[in-house]
Structure formats: C-alpha cells, structure tokens
Amino acid sequence: QEQMVESGGGLVQPGGSLRLSCAGSGFRFDDYSIGWFRQAPGKTREAVVCISSDDRLAYYGDAVKDRFSIWVDAAKNSLGLHMKDHKANDTAVYYCAAAQSCHHLASGPTFWGQGTQVTVSP
User: How far is CA 9 from CA 32, 42, 83, 96, in A?
Assistant: First the structure.
C-alpha cells in the first residue's frame, strides 16, 4: 500500500530554521514528481517545492525561494525540506506528496502524507 509519512514539524521563532522529513513506501519516487506543499488556515494549498519527473530539477515557490531547500534520497524513498529564515506566513501544515507532474503536486497529488504542523511564532 502506498504511503507517505512526514515528521519534524513544530514551533520555530521568526528567523529560525527547521527540518522536515518524509518517508515513502509502496511506490518508487523516481516514477513521480515529488515535493512539498503547504496549507495555511483559511487558505488554499500552495506548492512549496517540486522535483520534476521530467528533468529532476527542483522548482521552488516564490515565497520560499532562497530560504528553503529540498533533498531526496530516491534509493531510500525519502525526502526532506530544510527551511531557514522563517517568516510568520510560513505557518501552515506541510505535506510531502507525489504527483504525475509538478503542476498537480498541490492541486491533485497521487499520494500525500497526513501533514505536519509548522508554527512560526516569537
């Protein structure tokens, strides 16, 4: 059975750093576009970063560019997200996901985890 499980969320101060991890099982990361999306209270899902299945390049959302970085270990079906210089509007539930394309990562992923809360607060 396909599954993705996130870990590593929590409370972080503005300007601080946090790392998220995700373990996948039941499917191959190499067969999908993979990455992270987030959803803040009262807002729609927002793609954070996606590694495309076409070119294996990472594409970052404008809100997190130069602050977040993704890593992937395809052999272990795991990925992570290193976040730094947190801002208040980074507060959201973060989900790792796999999709047919990066275009669908946030709007229609094939597999996704249960999410992990990240709260940015003094």
Answer: 24, 20, 11, 12
109 φ/ψ angles, rounded to the nearest 5 degrees: -65, 155
State the virtual CA torsion across 120, 95, 21, 30 in degrees, nearest 10.
Answer: -150
Other beta carbons within 10 Å of 7: 13
Q: What is the pLDDT of residues 47-78, one digit of tens each?
A: 999 999 999 999 999 999 999 999 999 899 99
> Which run of H or of E encompasses 54?
none
Distance, CA of 93 to CA of 25 (rounded, Å)? 21
Residue written as token pair 């229609």: 108
